[in-house]
Amino acid sequence: MFETLEAKPADAILKLIAEHRDDPRENKIDLGVGVYRDAKGVTPILNTVKTAEQWLVDNQASKAYLGCAGDPEFCKAIQNLTFGDGSDQDGRITTLQTPGGSAALRVAAGLILRAMPDVTMWVSDPTWNNHVPLLGGAGIKLQAYPYYDNDNNCIRFDDMLAALGQAAAGDLVLLHGCCHNPTGMDLTVEQWQQLADVLADRNLIPFIDFAYHGFAVDLDADAYPVRLMFERFAEMIVATSCSKNFGLYRDRVGSLSIVGASAESAAIVNSQAQNIVRTLYSVPPDHGGAVVAHILNNSELRATWLTELAGMRQRLQGMRKLLVAALSETAPEHDFSHVVRANGMFCYLGVSAEQVARLKQDFGIYLVDSSRINVCGITESNVSYLAESIAAVL
Ligand SMILES: Cc1ncc(COP(=O)(O)O)c(C=O)c1O
After folding, report:
1. 209 catalytic, yes or no?
2. Second label for 200, Cα 20 to 30 Å away, from 27, 65, 86, 377?
3. pTM
4. What phi and psi values does residue 370 have, to the nearest 5 degrees?
5. Distance from residue 341's CA to the centre of ligand 1 (Å)
6. Which residue among the candidates 244, 251, 286, 305 is catalytic per the annotation?
7. What pLDDT is stored for residue 9 in this prediction?
8. How many CB atoms lie within 10 A of CB 207?
9. How far is the CA of 169 from the centre of ligand 1 (A)?
């Protein structure tokens, strides 16, 4: 039955993780991994998550299925976190709990295909390496818009606007809410406003992938693009993830919010989305969503979560500064200042694939060929070695 199938090549990041694991060098550094890590190299379980889990163990009354749209309490809490408290005055936002942001993207793809089978979705070049397989694989026609200037380590904003100026009315534009993956480079408030003007002029529909809420500046500042678009557009889509900001990666917690032109339209979309969910994974898992709902709805836990979230964000910002300061000593003739201008876990280091290969071979420093680094791999004790090694391959 399966004799016609051929093996798929291993995912580049999984391969890198395995190579790093098998490298016997003590000073090896992993900058490839896609999750948050603390200074000890651990992806921690947040204290607030532990507390909420204990509360669940003590209080959960049933393990019966959730509905296809998940737990209404979770959906309301995430909707308020994303769009702002009480933002859904007229019932135009419908939110479903999904197994991670990935499933939110996949359900959205199904909905889009039902509504507009021939639509084009514009995606940034570059973008998260699962966007194209996930959305394109679901059957959506994709087209790239320029986003990052590799030579100057900045956003190609004018080129981005020019490309979107060519999009057809009704096309969707996939945007990263904050902490653009892989470049870490986000639009400024003014640029978001200009972009909103272009989308509105061309009658394009914003689709915001919001996987790093709270990892750039703070919860409100990071949500600015979502709230701006919500104010200005009759219809939009938002996919969120609790993998990073609650550290719930393996528990698979995310949401899909669709803004409809009216409450009636939102209700129809919700019924279609639930129908798609039924055929994909039937119902979402409960545990992680229940943890998030409990944290967000308990003022004490919520305040502690904000502190824990700020701790992760500040560590990332601190490591970026440390690396740039160390590189200004070891490679003073090179400008790495873009590393501190980037948000979240990732950015491009800005070295060639050959230099990436030398970092791995000669120094045991692991990053993907594009030179995307996860700054979580940097610590106070390895930053000097890292900066010396980078200088050596430049
Ligand atoms: C841009 C982006 N979107 C979505 C996701 C999906 O995350 P998850 O499915 O774990 O919620 C990720 C995860 O790395 C991401 O980087």
Report:
1. yes
2. 86
3. 0.97
4. -65, -10
5. 21
6. 244
7. 84
8. 24
9. 28
For the chain, the average pLDDT equals: 97
- Tell me how far the alpha carbon of residue 3 lies from the centroid of ligand 1, in angstroms: 33
The pLDDT tens digits of the residues spanning 300-353 come to: 999 999 999 999 999 999 999 999 999 999 999 999 999 999 999 999 999 999
CB 52 near ligand 1, within 6 Å: no
Query: Which tokens sit at 332?
Result: 């003073």
Range 65-297 has CATH code 3.40.640.10: yes
Q: Write the single-letter amino acid at 71.
A: D
Q: Known catalytic residue: 244?
A: yes
170 vs 243: CA distance, rounded Å: 31
Cβ–Cβ < 8 Å for 128, 184:
no
Show me where the domains of the chain are located: 12-44+314-393, 65-297
Multiple choice CATH, 12-44+314-393, 3.30.559.30, 3.40.50.720, 3.40.640.10, 3.90.1150.10: 3.90.1150.10
CB of 99 sitting under 6 A from ligand 1: no
Ligand 1 atom 2 nearest Cα: 211
Question: Facing residues of 240 across strands?
Answer: 210, 255
In the numeric block, which tokens belong to residue 130? 């699962």
Give catalytic status of residue 8 as yes or no. Answer: no
pLDDT band at 14 (very low <50, low <70, confident <90, very high): confident
Cα–Cα distance measured from residue 284 to residue 248, given in angstroms and rounded to the nearest whole number = 14
Q: Which atom of ligand 1 is nearest to the CA of 242?
A: 11
Helix-strand-coil percent breakdown of the chain, rounded to 5? 45, 15, 40
